[in-house]
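Quick one: structure tokens for this chain, please?
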Amino acid sequence: MKVHTIGIIMNGVTGRMGTNQHLIRSIDAIIKQGGVQINDSERIMPDVILVGRNETKLKSLVERTSISKWTTDLESVLKDASYSIYFDAQTTGRRADAVEKAVAAGKHIYCEKPIATSTQQALDLFALCQKKGVKNGVVQDKLWLPGLLKLKRLIENDFFGKILSVRGDFGYWVFEGHSVPAQRPSWNYRKEEDGGIIVDMLCHWRYVLDHLFGKVKGVFCMGATHIPERIDENGKPYICTADDAAYAIFELEDGVIAQFNSSWTTRVRRDDLLTLHVDGTKGSAVAGLRECWTQSYGNTPKPVWNPDIPNPIDFNLGWSKMPEQENFDNAFKVQWELFLKHVVLNTPFPWTLYEGAKGVQLAEKGIESWEKKIWVTIPELKT
């Protein structure tokens, strides 16, 4: 068995997403499964070093995983030629500087979104990678969620006919911390620390819309800070300066209209924390994170509006749950394996930092729309 060992610097994985999705459920899982299989005689095996600012947290991660190496000295490890990939899951404000240093050191780049605090900064990072000739990618995990993959299969098989509209509902109640501890970090609600749900979620909606339903051409967005005060990790109250909810309408190519509500101040009464409702001329579908329900034209009921009597139609009965036709792995892990193959085998990987810059652009345009209360056109990004 030929093993391609590839060194990975993982910076900032002491946070919630970095620890759970990227380290434990992706890279550590890949190591424990024996690497990424190329064929019957070849595999790719990660060789990882963890980087962060908190020694205690790094030591804890080493104890929990199969990773044995860690350091607080990023500068030193960037000089080590045995590591060819730099991964960044730090808070957004720290990302660009670290990525620039990694590119200068000749490392291939893979990082979380948003990849930068501005569209221009994001484009500059992509240009640096292009100039240096290093491979680069951005995490776009939702494209590999089972529910969205099932939607993709329906689109590929022309189940919808002409797609008319997409409605997305995302979110849940994030506790303020006064009585029940918060389940998200306090920086999410501080604008000065690059927090806010528009910055966070419109990056996601950009690649979901672009890759599944059509290029985003324009946006109208309203943000809100519904909860003015929360409790931080030290038990102290703080004023929320970032938006905790966003209500957006997008125009896509071919006349498709998309609406997305994103909120950390809503209580869930739907099938999942994220649902996408797609309507087309031939049929409709509702996808959650894992499941997907369909209703074809022939199974569509014909309701009549009459609020004076109980509705005789049980609308849930007209939907069919899609069967499990394939096995789905963790979405983050799937994209990690694709990136590792891209670096080792030069296989295609279209989810570059340029795609990440598009997400930052949509977030910026969403904020502009909110501040000016106007419809904003999304121009083509020039590299």
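The chain has a mean pLDDT of 97.
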